[in-house]
Write a structure and sequence with these properties.
Number of strands: 9
CATH topology: Rossmann fold
Shape: globular
Structural class: alpha/beta
Strand order of the largest sheet: 2-3-1-4-7
Order of helices and strands: HEHEHEHEHEEHHEHHHEEHH
Number of helices: 12
Radius of gyration: 21 Å
CATH class: Alpha Beta
Largest sheet: 5 strands, parallel
Strand content: 5-15%
CATH superfamily: P-loop containing nucleotide triphosphate hydrolases
Length: 267
Amino acid sequence: MLKKTIIIFSFLCLSVSHAFSLRRHDNFIVHAIPKCGVNLSHKLFPMLFNKPLKCGPLEHENIINSIKQHYLIRSSRRLDQQFVDAVDRNKFKMVCVIRDPRDALVSLAIYMRKFKNGRTKRDFVTVPANFNQLTLDEQIICLLTNPDWNYHKLYTDRILWSFRPNSLMIKYENLIGSQGGGDDTIQIQELLKIVNFVNCAIPHEKIIAVANDLYSCWGQREVEDKTFTHGQIGSWKYILNDEHKQMIKKSWGDLLIQLGYEEDYSW
């Protein structure tokens, strides 16, 4: 009898401890545009909230399961009324991780160069069969303007989540701190914005610890006589040429100003 009582007591203690470790907060979904901090999100949010972050559809059943099974949902889906209805129906907030689309475009171009020659389906991207024969400059233009698939449309369709009511826009550049070319004070402020937005009480020392461990330097890669530092802010300045910049001003010029990455078209 005593042994049984001890077992039950131990189980209750573990249950209470587990419940305590699952930080209480408003229900929310993490939305990250591809090449704008998806991998960083999968490191940040589990560290911050003590819950796994799973990629999943923005559907009613999955949203309900995330509450019951104590996990967070990460999506990269475009804004679609079906998904909007599911999110609104369940009164979920959205934490949207964005990034300067110019840096995101360059990051995507570097990533696409890892795939074997002739392969047209590369992760979430479709490229022409001769993609590997193109120069880096030509590849960037292809990714920006290819009529079959282009990053301009992907980014533009997904950034719309950030402008919805009950959404919080979080910038990748503000999350990575000084190790990624950002600012440590701004990094802490950005983490505080997240926890305050979802009404979660997290000790300040915990936030400091998360900030210190969040960004990892992935090293430098030489790309056609240009050095690209993975995850660094402003890498586009060393990669994009004048033709690229003019094309981007036409497609994302107003958006860059709206997002606060530029003040005008003089960059």
